[in-house]
Amino acid sequence: MSNDNNNSLKKIMLNGLLNKNPILVSGMVIAPVIVLANNFKNAVMLVIAFSLITFFTLLVSSFVPKSIVYTIRIILYTLIGALVYVPSVILLNYFMPEGVEAIGIFFPLFITNSFIVTRSESIFFLETKGKMFLDIVFCILGYDAAVLIFAALREILASGTIGGKMTGMPASFRVFEHPFGGFIMLGLFAALFRSILLLIKRVRQK
């Protein structure tokens, strides 16, 4: 039984962080990453906002009875997200007002992000409460890690800095600061990530 629990935990961790990474594999909630995560500082604010709203919205939404009609459940998830949004934005605005301003319209849009709607109905709420909690945590961590790494690489390539500090890069490519450059880079980043996962899988099968 212990081995089964360990294997289950390991699977949840690997799925959230790697195998089913929300952004690099599933392609969820990429718009704010493309537009805003052009430097590490913005990315930190982005992942904090995403993590707070997504975690507490999913946690509270898990108590919505499944006997309720699907359409009504989706509306309830959105209402719960709106309720979670209010204290989240007040808290972050108190500690990091400039960051909240930088996120702009994407902050309230996290209320209806595809991660909450899609994963909640297809995966999270079908699990036991314990597994659901762990699954949510590792999926959010997987998203956050991918965004932070992507933003750090993007900032280095775009301006030769990391967190505003010079890295000594001999050249910079300002195109990656803009949304279309971010879109191209994120596509390449995701493709490389999936290729590495596929290569690891093939090596393990031999």
Describe the structure.
- Helix content is 73%, strand content 2%.
- By secondary structure, it is an all-alpha fold.
- The chain has one domain.
- The chain has a two-stranded antiparallel sheet.
- Helix 1 runs parallel beside helix 8 and helix 3 crosses helix 4.
- The protein is globular and about 60 Å long.
- The two termini are 28 Å apart.
- The mean pLDDT is 86.
Structural domains: how many: 1
Spatial arrangement of strands, main beta sheet: 1-2
- By oligomeric state, this entry counts as single chain
Kindly estimate the percentage of residues that lie in beta strands according to DSSP.
under 5%
Task: Based on Cα principal axes, name the global outline.
Answer: globular
Strand count, sense and barrel status of the largest sheet are: 2 strands, antiparallel
Kindly, what is the distance between the CA atoms of the first and last residues, rounded to a whole number of angstroms? Answer: 28 Å
Number of strands: 2
Could you spell the SSE succession in H and E letters? HHHHHHHHEEH
Quickly list its features.
single chain; 206 residues; mainly alpha; two-stranded antiparallel sheet; 9 helices; 73% helix; globular
List the helices and strands and how they pair.
Blueprint: H1 2-19, H2 31-36, H3 40-61, H4 70-95, H5 97-103, H6 106-109, H7 114-122, H8 129-159, E1 161-162, E2 165-166, H9 179-205
Antiparallel strand pairs: 1-2
Helix pairs in contact: 1-8, 3-4, 3-5, 3-8, 4-5
Would you kindly provide a brief summary of this structure?
The protein has 206 residues and is mainly α.
